[in-house]
Amino acid sequence: MGDTRVCDCKVGRVADEFDLAGVHESLAERWVRDRDDYSLRELARYFDERVLTAAMREAGEDPLGSEVASAYDALTDDAVSSGERVQVENRLSRAGVDVDAVREAFVSHQTVHTHLRECLDVEKETGPEGDPTDRAKDTLFALQSRTEAVTESTVDSLANSSLALDDFDVLVSVSVTCAACGRSYDVGELLDRGGCTCKEP
Ligand SMILES: [Zn+2]
Ligand SMILES: [Zn+2]
pTM for the complete prediction? Predict the structure, then answer.
């Protein structure tokens, strides 16, 4: 380990730790693809599912993609009941998967975005002809990534003196609340889904 690590951000560290061969190329390719391009949320999910698959294989399982996807939903989706979640956690634990370690390894879409832009130096083509939603996402995520980076270095600089903290992760999330119905969304999620559910026919 170590010699394949492309960077020291969380994506790089986790990819190295779980030995995710070719994952950086796959992320970059899915990110810049013209048609059927992946949203950052889908890229984060793709990465997380690779982590989960690796952990399950390490434990001697040979899961199908659909099994990984449903286990991932159970671990991360707020819409899944806690009973169902516990059931999946127990099943994985019994199989020998370190569920906490896997969950901690999951990445946010912003982390993926920062990794793509800053570590892999991949930029999505969103010129004046590009999709306005994509351009808006670029602007917003760049801002969130910056906030994340500044927060991280600020907290880091205090962590050895006036702040009692060892390892940490910073997640910047911006919510937008629909004034009509009161539902709130992560701004990236709102742009991905194309509007509030109360506006759907
Ligand atoms: Zn990175
Ligand atoms: Zn609404």
Answer: 0.69
∠ CA 114-168-172, rounded to 5°: 45
CA of 179 to the centre of ligand 2 (A): 7
In a domain, 73, yes or no: yes
Residue 110 maps to a domain: yes
Q: Which helix (H) or strand (E) holds 175?
A: strand 175-177
Query: How many A from CA of 194 to the centre of ligand 2?
Result: 12
Read off the pLDDT of each residue in 62-88 and give the average, rounded to a whole number.
92
Q: Around ion ligand 2, which residues have CB less than 5 A away?
A: 178, 180-181, 196, 198
Q: Which ligand is nearest to the CA of 178?
A: 2
The number of domains in the chain is 1
18-34: per-residue pLDDT in tens? 999 999 999 998 888 75
